[in-house]
Amino acid sequence: MKRALIITYYWPPAGGPGVQRWLQFVKYFNDFGIEPVVYIPENPHYPMTDNSFVYEVPKDIKILKHPIKEPYRLAGLFSKKKTNTISSGIISKKKQSLLEKVMLYIRGNFFIPDARIGWVRPSVSFLSNYLLEQPVDIIISSGPPHSLHLIAMQLQKSTGIKWMADFRDPWTTIHYHASLRLNKASERKHKQLEARVLNSANCIVVTSPTTKREFEMITETPIEVITNGYAASNVVKTQLDTSFSISHIGSLLSERNPKELWKVLAEIASEKPLFKSDLCIQLAGTVSDDVLASIEKFGLSEATKSIGYVSHSEALQLQHNSQVLLLLEIDRPETRAIIPGKLFEYLAAKRPILAMGPFESDIEDIIVETKSGKFFSAHKEEVLKAHILNLYEQYKTTGLVIESENIEKYSRRELSRHMSDLIRKLV
């Protein structure tokens, strides 16, 4: 049995996709000969919480906690809403208030690489003492926040223990990095820290092939792609919506606003009155005002349900019940590496996926491989319209059915097997 110290910020009751990756690995590690020890903040500031995840934490694992000083708590005294959106990565380049500009400048230039940098020094001290009494075979850091990699890097240097750096998202190429109002010195420091982490780790794990290619330009450290995945569930029973539901699960940022889709849906609704009465656009999660304004502009407000944040179990039920599942990514080259965690849950739901994003997105490769839907890049309104009409015709006649393939390898258990094999190979 190999013992692994996992340093992560997001842990139940944190909500959203960030918490699920290592929660799921930890659930299966013992089956593959890995004993996990999880290190988390004692008093974190989570922008969203989901208590349903608490019940998924294995009862027999060791969890270490240490206090963290959260600057977002202080910022929340000025604007709780803006603080939560910034800490979630929901940053609009348009219509920024003076307060938001100041908060972004402070976040980007005074907290490098991120707002949890103050947790590094006390964590190194705490974990150094722990490792003297309870040694481990490997240290694993999960980012973002990327400051957690700095904890692992210092522990590796002082102890000689092998270190795996797991990147759920890229660092300097993440879509919101350019929105942090960085000065040249801060931008340079980010890149230096990124390179230092990549070159110091014994192994790097990323969630997409594009991120691997980007990192290979910076380091010769071995890099492995282990995507996010889906957790098998016998609880969710599909009860298909009677309406022609097109559902998006998760946050909808201003820059993820699919105006071409709204335009196409509005055109079909004006041409086919029955389509208009059947259509139901379901948005579960935080939705930006810009997205809602676009929906209203195209006359789709009456067909739209903005549900707000839902628990993970509720999200899974929505996915299984929907006629069509909508997956959206910001149409910019730097988002080609982003593979949202919900894609894999969409695969498990076995409902047709309608995905939109940048050209050469890693999302498209998975959708093509699994035959789970269609991916559209920009400026393909006629093709998009024809596809939606085809889906609607199936819905009205035979019923919408998808015959996907090769999704089993994206199950959390199989991914945990892959991660466990990598750990044993490294130590």
TrEMBL record:
Q: Which Pfam family would be a valid example here?
A: Glyco_transf_4
**Top-level taxon of origin:** Bacteria
InterPro entries, per database record: Glyco_trans_4-like_N
For whether the record's keyword set contains RNA-binding, the answer is no
Q: Does the keyword rRNA-binding apply?
A: no
Instruction: List the transmembrane segments.
Output: none
Q: Please state every residue range assigned to the domain named Glycosyltransferase subfamily 4-like N-terminal.
A: 106-230
Swiss-Prot/TrEMBL keywords? Transferase
A molecular function (GO) term: glycosyltransferase activity
Its protein name is Glycosyl transferase family 4
Please report the organism this UniProt entry assigns to the protein. Answer: Ulvibacter antarcticus
